[in-house]
Write a structure and sequence with these properties.
The protein is of the alpha+beta class and about 400 residues long. It has three domains: about 100 residues, Roll (CBS-domain); about 35 residues, no CATH class; about 230 residues, 4-Layer Sandwich (Phosphatase 2c, domain 1), CATH 3.60.40.10. About 35% of the residues lie in helices and about 25% in strands. About 5% of the residues have low confidence.
């Protein structure tokens, strides 16, 4: 994983440091005093100091030890991969793309890791297929390992790792799943997961990470891993959301920036004839009955909890109601309902409910695309400003 191991003596003048940066393509070098690591110097910082008015005259002979970065990210060479990824995700936007300093057990300098290498590795972990990993690695290497290309690949991986329509088309299953997913940018902060509990029971989780870009995409990857690890609580929405919140808080407490995730989770159990539902700061979903009538899911009072990542150990709870064959749970992210007209008016949840109920004869495979198209027409037919995610879980095929 090491990208380079450039270093310079602590008493080297800034003029010499500037020449060293000019002779190589790295943006950061370790500053050492003999075998002892003192800190890190950055190309941009040295260039600004020497390039300022009178900067060269004032600082050219100044030792680099006086011009080191404040609080570079420093990790042990044997740190677990998840700790490395979590530490990078917790950094501020201003320092997110800085190289990561690596030291040995005694604190001696080992080298630097490029952040774009970590993004690539996160992509490979999501793929989960050795052949795909190798093809992705070669493709990215052929494009000179440009970070923008890594982001494009991350988008493809996100889409590939989401549950696909028809993925659960098994004759033994008594439930059916459909989805519509429209990312607004390169990588998305929207995430959904289908959890098969049994032939008669399944859960569907929808999450919306605050913000966009690589940071949000890394959080969705963590959410996917967390939800897989928490399958033992999959039949109880309140318990699953409580554990997801605890896992997420363990990561987010390391960052000074606020970051939260809204989520909704519904479990359809045909054997029991029940729908269980939990909500964390997320728009309330709908239930489309087999008769065509549309109702809001049970999200009043204590069932509607805060977003994940805000309150440690918050006890999310579960709402339960009866469910009949042909009834369909519909969950979505706010990118759909916040689509705006030219006059700035939001499409809103009321219009969404009306559109769901408009034609009871429409099957689920056609319903979700029609809902997205209706919101798009309302907004003038252009691209959505935010990510759009819409899923449906039906009791019975």
């Amino acid at each position: 994983m090491l990208g380079h191991s450039e270093w310079i003596a602590a008493d080297a003048p800034l003029e010499a440091v500037h020449r060293r940066f000019a002779d190589n393509s790295t943006d950061f070098m370790a500053v050492c005093e003999g075998p002892r690591l003192l800190g890190v110097c950055a190309r941009r910082q040295i260039a600004m100091q020497l390039g300022a008015r009178f900067g060269f005259a004032l600082f050219a002979q100044s030792p680099v030890r006086e011009h080191m970065m404040a609080d570079p990210l420093c990790l042990n060479e044997f740190a677990p991969l998840n700790e490395v990824l979590e530490s990078v995700a917790a950094r501020s936007n201003a320092n997110f793309y800085d190289d990561v300093l690596v030291v040995d057990a005694s604190g001696q300098f080992v080298g630097f890791i490029f952040v774009h290498e970590l993004v690539r590795l996160q992509t490979e972990m999501l793929l989960g297929n050795i052949d795909e990993l190798e093809r992705s690695r070669l493709e990215i290497a052929e494009k000179n390992r440009i970070l923008e290309e890594d982001v494009l690949m991350a988008r493809e991986v996100q889409l590939a790792m989401l549950p696909q329509n028809g993925a659960a088309a098994d004759p033994s299953l008594r439930w059916a799943f459909r989805s519509e997913y429209r990312p607004s940018g390169g990588v998305s902060g929207d995430f959904f997961q289908l959890i098969r509990i049994s032939d008669e029971s399944a859960g569907v989780l929808v999450c919306d990470v605050m913000g966009h870009g690589v940071r949000s995409a890394l959080v969705t990857a963590m959410l996917r891993a967390f939800s897989e690890d928490l399958r033992s609580t999959a039949s109880d929405p309140g318990a699953l959301l409580t554990r997801l919140n605890q896992c997420l808080m363990g990561v987010l407490r390391q960052t000074a920036n606020m970051l939260f995730v809204t989520a909704a989770y519904a479990v359809v159990d045909i054997g029991k004839g029940t729908l269980a539902y939990g909500q964390a700061g997320h728009p309330t979903g709908f239930l489309r009955l087999a008769s065509g009538r549309v109702e809001a899911l049970p999200a009043e009072g204590d069932v509607a909890g805060p977003a994940l990542g805000l309150i440690p150990d918050y006890p999310f709870v579960t709402g339960v109601r009866s469910l009949g064959l042909g009834d369909t749970v519909i969950l979505f992210t706010d990118g759909l309902t916040e689509a705006r007209s030219a006059a700035g008016e939001e499409w809103g949840q009321d219009r969404l409910a009306e559109e769901i109920a408009r034609d009871p004869s429409v099957e689920n495979r056609d319903l979700l695309p029609r809902l997205v198209e209706a919101a798009s027409r309302f907004a003038g037919g252009g691209a959505f400003e935010d990510d759009v995610c819409l899923v449906a879980l039906t009791a019975g095929p």
